[in-house]
Amino acid sequence: MWTTSRCSSEFGGTYRLVTLPVGPTGRVTLEALAGGRLMHIDAELTVGGQSRSRTGTLIDPMFGGRIAYHITDTVGLWFRGTWLASESPTARASSRTT
Hints:
Layout (H helix, E strand, L loop, with lengths): L1 E21 L3 E22 L2 E21 L5 E9 L7 E6 L1
Antiparallel strand pairs: 1-2, 2-3, 3-4, 3-5
């Protein structure tokens, strides 16, 4: 039997670079963003009464940008793109046998 659990969170901040008016009530904003992504994975494999498990925590830096189109003050659309490092020097993993 194979079981896994995973938890991930993103954190960071944005900096508004520019706001441009569009039409009578709309506006477009361009923002830079930087932060990180934290992932924790716990996996266990049981075969024939023997069990193996592995736990890992990974923290990756994340950089990107966001473009938002504000149709009104309360309604908007946005597009976000990020670059996430695939291997981080802060990755840590441990294993245990039960």
